[in-house]
Amino acid sequence: MRKIIVIGGGAAGMMAAAAAAGQGCKVVLFEKNEKLGKKLFITGKGRCNLTNDCDMETLFQNVMTNSKFLYSTFYGFDNHAAMEWFEKAGCPLKTERGGRVFPASDHAFDVTAALERQLKKGKADVRLHTAVKRLVADRERIKGVELADGSIEYGDAVILASGGLSYPLTGSDGDGYRMAAEIGHTIKETCPSLVPLTVQEDWCKSLQGLSLKNVKISLCQQGKKPFYEGFGEMLFTHFGVSGPLILSASSYYGKKCKGEKVRLRLDLKPALTPEQMGKRLLRDFEENKNKQFRNALGGLFPSKLIPVMIALSGIDGEKKVHEITKEERTHFAYLIKNMEMTVTGTRGYEEAVITKGGIHVKEVNPSTMESKIQKGLYFAGEVLDVDALTGGYNLQIAWSTGYQAGLSAADAAPAETPGE
Description:
The protein is of the alpha+beta class. The chain is built from 12 helices and 21 strands. The chain starts with a strand and ends in an 8-residue tail after the last helix. Residues 415-420 have low confidence and may be disordered.
């Protein structure tokens, strides 16, 4: 019986192990944590947005890095195939706004449980609390792995699915990059992605906890056109900004100008054109003409935002509305559509959903996920230099690459296990 070793019990590793076990292989899955799918439990605020119910074009459009590399794997096991797989594995699904797919129960546990059932069905040998130290190989092919205790586990093929560097509390420490580099693989520079942004302006701190829905933002370098524009929900924090809209923006920021200062422009009323905004403000001011400026803005902004908008406008909050000049009103209308902040960088891996960078995909066969450098070694998931936007797309990469790696390893492995 062919023996497949899988390093990492996250999304990609569990799928790879389940796929290989489903082909009748003897599968040994090593996971350093006390349980499988530790990172899955916290994705989507504990609900686990496991894929997106979109068409193939949209799926590729949401991949930020090396989308062409994923062509074979996506077509081999796409989002709808993944949905069908989980449904058959006993995890009913539901689709929400933006095509986001969740377990019907709203519990990430059900996603992990479905994967564990398939592992059990395939009689996979799951070894928790077991860390892999290094890959064991000769010039011809992979031989197995050396464990932290110094013992060697031999196998016909090894699937490296150890994740990236994001959420280190879940065990993501970049070990996979080190192991791959030790046998000759190139590691593309890594950085946190889908991560909150830090902002220079102090007034952001006073808005901590304020969530804004249906707003538009753009990011641009000094004197250049915006390199990102998006619409959705954002959140102010003690260090800057976060929320779904910002996480997506961070992926573009990391790719375009990581570490540089850029302008973040916030449109608080994107449904209104600048002309309509001016008319809306004129109407509001007319209705509140005898009130003080600070007491006339309740219909426009959340209460927490009002003092900041007054300060940025330069208009005295005590000033009667009817005393506000046309020039001041025009400037205020512009401010509402163009509230500016200075992005100084991103937060760290502790708050990043994923890691950008990883094993160079030019050294991996896109049809099989097998290493071009070491025969019998396969890769899956976040350890590869592929990443996508929020919405279930990164987990789809894990399912697709994991499934392909599992099938390929099972199909290509020699019949006799070296060392046994």
